[in-house]
């Protein structure tokens, strides 16, 4: 079985870029690599429903923390077979967002931390009931909320397909999510963690091979 690494961080933190850099570096070392990005917008109906809710559709759906978390979890559950096949066929599987994202955003929206009831609920749902593979390592990109939000807003100005949603516009929420992520790192939630950016982030993942 291959190694499963989840790359976490705020919107605008540069997860897509780092995943690409890790993939290239691991491939240069002779490792076979597969990548997946969550939510799977455009591929998964539950992910698309969540996105639409975050952009003002479907009434008060986005007001429910548990409903939104369930939609994102169902998106990953539908990719369980794909994930397991990738782990069987490759040395390294990298997820651009994974279950920790769901737990961090849910806890932050409810004003809690890493020890919140909703964090335990997400873990039981995704790793227990949906039997998603537990990551071997998780990487938190160390990009502060203000920087990440500025990048996300700049990206939206140049890419009409990536407008900011209600989570991304909420500065208080973004700071709270980053705090919960930090608590995950300190408590080693579900696996070992690294908290880094740039070259250090790439090196942290390569060290797992």
From TrEMBL:
Question: Which keywords label this protein?
Answer: ATP-binding, Kinase, Nucleotide biosynthesis, Nucleotide-binding, Transferase
GO terms of molecular function: ATP binding; dTMP kinase activity
The processes (GO biological process) annotated in the record are: dTDP biosynthetic process; dTTP biosynthetic process; dUDP biosynthetic process
Q: What is this protein called?
A: Thymidylate kinase
User: Which family does the record assign?
Assistant: Belongs to the thymidylate kinase family.
Q: What is the lineage of its organism?
A: Bacteria, Bacillati, Actinomycetota, Actinomycetes, Mycobacteriales
Origin species: Gordonia neofelifaecis NRRL B-59395
NCBIfam families xrefs: PRK07933.1 (NF005923)
Q: What does this protein do?
A: Phosphorylation of dTMP to form dTDP in both de novo and salvage pathways of dTTP synthesis.
């Amino acid at each position: 079985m291959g190694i499963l690494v989840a790359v976490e961080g705020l919107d605008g933190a540069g997860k897509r870029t780092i995943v690409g850099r890790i993939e290239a570096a691991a491939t240069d070392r002779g490792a076979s690599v597969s990548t997946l990005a969550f939510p799977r917008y455009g591929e998964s109906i539950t992910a698309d429903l969540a996105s639409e809710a975050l952009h003002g559709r479907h009434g008060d759906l986005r007001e429910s923390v548990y409903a939104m978390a369930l939609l994102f979890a169902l998106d990953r559950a539908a990719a369980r077979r794909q994930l397991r096949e990738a782990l069987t066929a490759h040395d390294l599987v990298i997820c651009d967002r994974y279950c920790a994202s769901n737990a961090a955003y849910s806890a932050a929206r409810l004003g809690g931390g890493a020890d919140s009831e909703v964090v335990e609920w997400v873990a039981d749902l995704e790793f227990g009931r949906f039997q998603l593979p537990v990551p071997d390592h998780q990487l938190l990109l160390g990009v502060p909320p203000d920087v990440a939000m500025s990048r996300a807003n700049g990206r939206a100005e140049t890419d009409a397909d990536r407008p900011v949603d209600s989570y991304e516009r909420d500065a208080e929420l973004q700071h709270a999510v980053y705090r919960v992520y930090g608590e995950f790192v300190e408590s080693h939630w579900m696996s070992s963690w690294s908290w880094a950016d740039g070259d250090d982030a790439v090196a942290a993942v390569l060290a797992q091979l």
